[in-house]
Design goal:
- The protein is mainly α.
- Helix 3 packs antiparallel against helix 4 and helix 8 packs across helix 9.
- The two termini are 15 Å apart.
- Helix content is 74%, strand content 0%.
- The longest helix is centred in the N-terminal third of the chain and has 27 residues.
- It has one domain.
Length: 297
C-alpha cells in the first residue's frame, strides 16, 4: 500500500512539472503543439521499446489486447485534448486557478469508484468533494466582470479549464479500468506505450486542425518534457496496480493530483507571483485542501 502511495505521489510531482511547462509555454508564446508532437513522438518510441514484455509475446494472444488498445488510445486522446485546453486557458487567465480547476478532475474517477466499485464513502471524502466543488464555483464566480488578459479571445479561461476538467476526468476513469477488470489484463505491459500513442495521435490531429505556430520550440524544454512523459506514465500504472491490490485504486488519482496541485500552487505563488483576488485564493485553498482531505481521510 505504502509503495503504491509513494509511486502516485511521485507521478503527481512530475505532473506539476507539466503544469509549469504549460505555463511557461503560454506566457512566452512558444509553439505548444509543435513541442507536444516532438515530445510524444520520442516518448512513444521509447515507450514501445522499453516497457512491453516482448519475451512473453509468443505465449500471448494479441487479439486479447485489442480491447485494451480500444480503451486506452481514446482515453489518451481525450486527456491530450484536456492538456491542450489547459494551455489555452492559461493564455487567457490566472495560471494557478486554471491548473487547480482542471486538476480537480480527480473527483470523477473518485466518485465512480464510490458508486460502482464499492469503495466506502467516509466523512473526510464527503468533505473533500464539497471543498473541491466549492473551488470550482469560486473560480467561475471570480471570472464574472473580469477583463480577459487579451481582448482578442472570445472565450474566457474558465469554460476552457472546465472542459479540461471533464476531459481529464474521463481519461483518469478509463485508465483505472484495466486494474479493475481481468478482461483488460495487460500481460505484455502495453498500457504505457498505448497511452503515449494516443497522446501522439491527438497532438497530430490538433496540429492539423489549428495549423502551424510561429513560436519557438526550445530543445531543453522538449527533452525535459519527454523524460516526464515516459516516467510519469510508467509509474502511474504501477501505483494503481499496487493500490488495487488493497481495493484502493480509487484514491490513486486523488493522491497524485494532491501532489500535482500543491506543487503547481507553490510555483504560481512563489515563482510567478501572480496577483490573486481573495476569491481566487479561497478557491485555490479549497481545491487543494479538498484534494488532500479526500486522499488521506
Amino acid at each position: 500500500m505504502l509503495i503504491g502511495i509513494l509511486l502516485v505521489i511521485a507521478c503527481g510531482l512530475m505532473w506539476s512539472s507539466v503544469g509549469i511547462l504549460s505555463s511557461t509555454i503560454a506566457r512566452k508564446g512558444y509553439d505548444f503543439l509543435g513541442i507536444r508532437i516532438r515530445v510524444t513522438s520520442v516518448a512513444t518510441l521509447i515507450g514501445w521499446v522499453c516497457f512491453p514484455r516482448w519475451t512473453e509475446l509468443p505465449s500471448v494472444n494479441l487479439g486479447e489486447h485489442l480491447d485494451l488498445a480500444l480503451l486506452l488510445i481514446p482515453a489518451a486522446m481525450i486527456g491530450g485534448l484536456g492538456i491542450f485546453l489547459i494551455n489555452q486557458a492559461m493564455r487567457r487567465g490566472h495560471n494557478g486557478a486554471c491548473w487547480t480547476l482542471s486538476q480537480s478532475a480527480m473527483i470523477v474517477p473518485f466518485v465512480i469508484s464510490l458508486l460502482f466499485w464499492g469503495e466506502a464513502l467516509t466523512l473526510g471524502k464527503t468533505l473533500g468533494i464539497l471543498l473541491s466543488l466549492g473551488a470550482i464555483i469560486s473560480f467561475g464566480k471570480d471570472q464574472q466582470g473580469q477583463p480577459h488578459s487579451d481582448e482578442a479571445f472570445r472565450i474566457g479561461w474558465f469554460p476552457l479549464a472546465a472542459l479540461a476538467f471533464f476531459c481529464l476526468g474521463v481519461q483518469q476513469t478509463l485508465m483505472i479500468l484495466p486494474s479493475r477488470y481481468e478482461s483488460l489484463a495487460d500481460p505484455l505491459a502495453l498500457r504505457t506505450p498505448l497511452l503515449l500513442t494516443g497522446i501522439y495521435f491527438i497532438n497530430q490531429l490538433l496540429y492539423w486542425i489549428q495549423g502551424g505556430h510561429p513560436g519557438k520550440r526550445p530543445l531543453p524544454m522538449m527533452l525535459y518534457w519527454c523524460c516526464i512523459a515516459v516516467c510519469s506514465q510508467g509509474i502511474i500504472f504501477l501505483g494503481i496496480d499496487r493500490l488495487e491490490a488493497h481495493n484502493a485504486a480509487g484514491i490513486a488519482f486523488p493522491i497524485a493530483i494532491s501532489a500535482c496541485v500543491l506543487g503547481f500552487a507553490l510555483y504560481s505563488l512563489l515563482i510567478l507571483r501572480e496577483n490573486s483576488s481573495l476569491l481566487q485564493k479561497a478557491g485555490m485553498c479549497c481545491g487543494v485542501v479538498g484534494i488532500v482531505v479526500m486522499s488521506f481521510f
